[in-house]
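Example 9 (inverse folding). The structure is encoded as follows.
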């Protein structure tokens, strides 16, 4: 892939529905798309700089739904294939298992599972179209070295293209296939190896699908490119119970063309997307959005240095991020801290390392003698010293992760603690800034190592440090789901400590109160990020309710 070939977004074309804006370029938005958005407080726009995008029609409060769409097609991923209903995504093995008298499956292919006869009936027309092909996908996947789930997804999209599912009994209709064809495909920027593999697999798949599903091979390749670049996780919680497996399971994936088309990426997003149980994706505001402001989501982990985020987006989504955070001068951006080394002179600022350009070159880094100025006082430090401390910390972190993979948790804990402690002697050494992403990355496995040793007090301390960094650094969005996850975890560990101290009235009560405080904060955040009825919000509310019984 040659990143220098990155081009701007092609304009959305629908000549019939041209509209003139009072200012700015011509807006060309599909009338059907506008109709689908008509119940939400958003306006769809098109500009050369941003392509198609959605803006707030009025001031929008946090926790407002700004788009909800049913996937054109979604699949339950292979590891979960017999664990979730393929229509409503209900768990087939959670707390409610007693209520599920039978798991329904198609007798013919034995590959698709349902929680009820109703769900099975609802999928009948669609499934009948694909059933004879489904059992042969594994062979194609093995022969062509391609993921079976990608083939299952392509098959479903091919069926939706023929509108086999139109006018069925579903109350919410999937987004029509025509919008998939209008998505950016970035084929020219995707690796040639992937295109070759997917071409071979498409030929094989096209040979075995029913006649009416057959497509041009080139169109199938574009379909795969679009899916790979813009699939969304239906991150469905499988149980209201709060065991570890039930959280953040990427058990289902779908293609949501409207969301993909109108919600650009930003490294300082104001919206979150949430998978719902019936294959819908909801876009919700995380904070107040002013009238006319663009509504954006994030496709990536945001507690990461700018170069890493941009590299990630370039590799997975084939574009070079030009969001406000990525284009703010480094010395003024929160990004300076995420790979920051503390200034030895003023102890407040960090030495500013210039960001990489699109071709991967970091200005100045090729000159051994270059130096970096402090963002606060202007004091400079040589490249070798600044880069050296980052490289050493990175290496130590990687070694600790290797230890964890080898299940040497004690040794990993020592290494991670050592890495964190080494950052305390700023006056004599170069040290990492407290918001440096390496330190954040080290805290998460450290907390897990402490949990493994049943050192709950230690784990709580580390969890609080993580929360402090997430909330105060400005690197992640306000009300961001990951803050909710660490609040939930904090509540759980406090609850464990309360149980451990059962009978010691004062201590037990203190940990119960701490747990309740964390769960309450988690519920408030998740109401905004996920909505009141979402299983993630309910699971946190449940922890409060059950602790009171
Ligand atoms: C899913 S589409 C988003 C909708 C897009 N505006 C359109 O008109 O189709 C993703 C594409 O939008 C552009 N894009 C989205 N966010 C961007 C960002 N932060 N910086 C640069 N380009 C971005 C890129 O071209 C990317 O391939």
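The amino acid assigned to each position is listed next.
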């Amino acid at each position: 892939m040659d990143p220098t070939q990155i081009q701007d977004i092609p304009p959305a074309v629908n000549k019939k529905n041209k509209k003139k804006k009072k200012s700015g370029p011509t807006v060309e938005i599909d009338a059907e798309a506008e109709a689908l958005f008509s119940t939400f407080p958003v306006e769809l726009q098109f500009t050369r700089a941003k392509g198609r995008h959605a803006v707030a029609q009025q001031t929008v409060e946090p926790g407002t739904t700004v788009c909800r769409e049913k996937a054109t097609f979604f699949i339950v991923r292979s590891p979960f294939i017999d664990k979730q209903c393929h229509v409503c995504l209900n768990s087939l093995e959670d707390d409610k298992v007693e209520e599920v008298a039978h798991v329904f499956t198609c007798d013919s292919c034995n590959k698709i599972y349902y929680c009820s006869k109703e769900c099975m009936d609802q999928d009948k027309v669609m499934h009948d179209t694909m059933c004879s092909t489904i059992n042969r996908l594994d062979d194609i996947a093995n022969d062509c070295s391609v993921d079976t789930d990608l083939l299952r997804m392509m098959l479903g999209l091919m069926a939706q293209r023929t509108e086999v599912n139109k006018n069925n009994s579903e109350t919410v209709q999937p987004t029509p296939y025509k919008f998939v064809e209008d998505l950016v495909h970035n084929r020219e920027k995707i690796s040639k190896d992937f295109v070759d593999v997917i071409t071979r697999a498409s030929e094989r798949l096209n040979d075995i699908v029913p006649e009416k599903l057959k497509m041009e091979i080139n169109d199938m390749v574009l379909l795969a490119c679009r899916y790979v670049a813009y699939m969304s996780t239906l991150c469905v919680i499988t149980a209201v119970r709060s065991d570890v497996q039930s959280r953040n399971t990427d058990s289902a994936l779908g293609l949501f063309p409207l969301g993909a088309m109108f919600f650009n990426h930003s490294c300082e997003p104001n919206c979150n997307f949430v998978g719902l149980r019936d294959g819908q994706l909801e876009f919700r505001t995380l904070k107040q959005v002013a009238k006319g402001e663009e509504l954006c989501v994030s496709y990536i982990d945001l507690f990461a240095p700018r170069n890493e985020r941009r590299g990630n987006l370039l590799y997975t989504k084939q574009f070079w991020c030009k969001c406000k955070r990525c284009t703010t001068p480094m010395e003024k951006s929160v990004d300076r801290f995420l790979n920051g080394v503390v200034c030895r002179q003023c102890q407040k600022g960090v030495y500013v390392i210039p960001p990489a350009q699109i071709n991967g070159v970091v200005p100045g880094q090729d000159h051994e003698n270059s130096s970096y100025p402090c963002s606060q006082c202007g004091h400079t430090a040589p490249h070798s010293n600044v880069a050296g401390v980052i490289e050493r910390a990175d290496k130590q972190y990687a070694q600790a992760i290797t230890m964890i993979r080898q299940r040497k948790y004690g040794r990993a804990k020592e290494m991670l603690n050592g890495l964190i402690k080494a950052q305390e002697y700023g006056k004599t050494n170069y040290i990492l800034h407290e918001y440096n992403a390496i330190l954040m990355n080290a805290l998460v496995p450290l907390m897990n190592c402490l949990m493994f040793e049943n050192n709950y007090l230690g784990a709580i301390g580390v969890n609080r440090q993580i929360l402090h960094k997430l909330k105060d650094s400005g690197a992640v969005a306000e009300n961001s789901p990951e803050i909710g996850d660490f609040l939930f975890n904090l509540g759980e560990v406090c609850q464990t400590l309360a149980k451990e101290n059962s009978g010691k009235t004062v201590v037990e009560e203190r940990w119960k109160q701490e747990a309740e405080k964390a769960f309450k904060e988690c519920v408030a955040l998740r109401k905004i990020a996920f909505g009141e009825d979402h299983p993630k919000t309910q699971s946190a509310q449940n922890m409060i309710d059950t602790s009171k019984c």
